[in-house]
Design a protein that fits this description.
mainly alpha; about 60% helix
């Protein structure tokens, strides 16, 4: 029984180590992709919003869009009672490896 507990702890430590390592790899890859994106935009896209190959096929698009967002903090400040009527209480679990 004791050996099994020790093996489980070692296994958990290994899993946590792999998890942390993967987080680092993902962050590094995201940084690399950000750099590549900037290079493509700067050297190939310039002011274009659609980069095409020699046959006219779209390779990359970079287009602006307009969206609307609701200013909930301002609404809460200006209409506290109405804001509170529409609040939902939900339970959220967060997985955090330290």
């Amino acid at each position: 029984m004791l050996n099994r507990k020790i093996e489980e702890v070692i296994s958990l430590e290994e899993l946590l180590s792999q998890y942390k390592s993967n987080r680092g790899i993902i962050k590094s890859l995201e940084e690399k992709n950000d750099y590549i994106k900037k290079q493509i935009l700067h050297h190939y896209m310039q002011d274009m919003d659609d980069l095409k190959d020699n046959e006219g096929r779209s390779l990359v698009t970079y287009k602006s869009s307009i969206r609307m967002s609701f200013q909930s903090k301002l609404f809460e400040k200006d209409h506290k009672d109405l804001y509170n009527q529409y609040l939902d209480v939900i339970e959220v679990k967060t997985f955090l490896v330290k």
